[in-house]
Each structure stands twice: as structure tokens, then as C-alpha cells.
């Protein structure tokens, strides 16, 4: 996936009005937007196509899909039919569940991102011990897109080493969670930034500052 300036906006706001304000403010710098449960539950799945049409942005639907294969398939189908370019899928549910989303992505000519390990402290209890196996499973399944944490650079590096240099890694946790953009981009292809931008009093200049700080 081609991500302008290597920054993805996590648009975790709860109204369409605010979503449009923030997306508009950063549109000179950011062309890839992650829509997750906060906006989709508040404003519906059509929030995806509304943002996509208004800003010509790519939309990554962050539904962290984690169900049995049959249900995963339905979730992925509906998400792609709503206009998402990609869907984020949990890996811990296993190869069959992930494969169901990959099949949907193939049929809709869209993409899957495999979530390997998470950025928050609690992820070290259960997900971290499994993360390397999840990344290895992704490689075996032929997945090219991954999510790995910006808050734990050594873990991000480990995941990069498993999935290889040709894989595409996006990394959340920059800014509000303490992760730092340039070290993240040493190992990830793009950083996901949410609150630092959408809670800032000047999202446009904040996005510009982040982009200016990156050695592209
Ligand atoms: O910059 P923030 O902390 O406001 O937002 C980070 C976004 O990334 C937010 O949408 C989280 O739900 C998401 N995220 C994480 O913060 N940590 C993870 O490990 C994984 C994700 C994510 O995007 O998962 C796919």
C-alpha cells in the first residue's frame, strides 16, 4: 500500500462532523486513514465511504477481526463492500480465521493487515508470547501487510526480522502512547498516529510537524 509521507491517521473520533474536520485539516499531508470502532459504531459503516469519497483517501478498516472463519468472512465482505481498501485482522485466532479474511480480500481485490502484537502494556501478558508465531503464520500464509507496535521497538524489530524486508508494516503507538516517529520508521513502513493529531488544537500543523520530522 502506498502511504503518503509514511503517516496513517487513526481517526478515532465519534462524530462524522469531527471526522471531516480532522481529515480536511490534514489532507495536504495524509492520504491514508484508519477507521475503527469508535467512528464506525457511532456513525455507521458508511463513514468509510463518506471519508473515502470526500478526501480520496485510502481507508484501512481497523475492526481487529477475531472470530471463527465463517463470521470473519462476513465481517470482511461487509467491510470491503462498504469501500474499505484494507481490513485489520487478529492473528491469534489462527490460520483458518485469517484465511477467511484473505479469501474475501482476494475476491474484492482488497488487502489484509495481520495484527501480530499490540502496543499497550497489557499485551505483554498473552499476545506477546504468541506474536512471533503469529508473524511466522503470516509469512506461511503469504501475507504481505502487518501491524506491530511502535511502543516496543525491539518487538517491532523482531517482527520485521520474521516477516522480512519486503513485507509492509504499519505501526501504532506513536505520540500519545509514547512511541517515537523516526525510530518506528526505522523498522516500519508507516506510523499510525491518532490522538496526537486529532486532539491537537491545530491538527494541520501537528501533522505537518510530524511529516517534516521524518527523513523520507
Ligand atoms: O495514536 P493513538 O494512541 O491515539 O491511536 C493509536 C491507534 O492505533 C488507535 O486507533 C488504536 O486502536 C490503534 N492500535 C494501537 O494503538 N495499538 C495496537 O497495538 C494496535 C492498534 C491498531 O491499529 O490495531 C490494528
UniProtKB/TrEMBL annotation:
Annotated family: Belongs to the OMP decarboxylase family. Type 1 subfamily.
Organism (species): Methanobacterium congolense
Superkingdom per UniProt: Archaea
GO molecular function: orotidine-5'-phosphate decarboxylase activity
Pathway assignment: Pyrimidine metabolism; UMP biosynthesis via de novo pathway; UMP from orotate: step 2/2
Major enzyme class: lyase
GO BP, sorted A to Z: 'de novo' pyrimidine nucleobase biosynthetic process; 'de novo' UMP biosynthetic process
Lineage, opening ranks: Archaea, Methanobacteriati, Methanobacteriota, Methanomada group, Methanobacteria
Active site per the UniProt annotation: 62 (for ompdecase activity), 64 (proton donor), 64 (for ompdecase activity), 67 (for ompdecase activity)
UniProt-recorded name of the protein: Orotidine 5'-phosphate decarboxylase
